[in-house]
Amino acid sequence: MNRTALASAQEGFREEMTRIKQTVGRPLETLDSFRLLLDAQQDILRAVIKYNRTQYRLFVAIGISPLETADASRTCDPAPH
């Protein structure tokens, strides 16, 4: 849903900017579209932060250091074929 809102806000802002450049649109409408775009971007950022925080808490809860997991994934050899 967040990605759909972001795509819609991007398209709306793009259309408003085109209208402004053609002197058909009103600056107030463009500012409103920009606010919607900013809100959609912030919603996605909040979702990513929430996911990362939850994943970190899960690692801590099961007794695994997220830093050790990241180091281990970089040093693991790929599975043999």
Describe it for me?
It is rod-shaped, with a radius of gyration of 21 Å. By secondary structure, it is mainly alpha-helical. The mean pLDDT is 82. It is 80% helix and 0% strand. Helix 1 (2-21) packs antiparallel against helix 2 (27-61). It starts with a helix and ends in a 6-residue tail after the last helix.
Number of helical segments with 4 or more residues: 3
Report the strand count.
Answer: 0
What is the averaged pLDDT score? Answer: 82
Helicity range: over 70%
Please give the alpha-carbon distance between the first and last residues: 39 Å
Radius of gyration: 21 Å
Overall SS class: mainly alpha
H and E string: HHH
Poorly predicted runs are: none
* Beta content: under 5%
The biggest beta sheet, please?
none
Shape: rod-shaped
Kindly summarize this structure in a few lines.
Helix content is 80%, strand content 0%. With 81 residues, it is mostly helical.
Labels describing this entry:
single chain, 81 residues, mainly alpha, 3 helices, rod-shaped
Sequence-ordered SSE layout with sheet pairings:
Elements: H1 2-21, H2 27-61, H3 66-75
Helix pairs in contact: 1-2
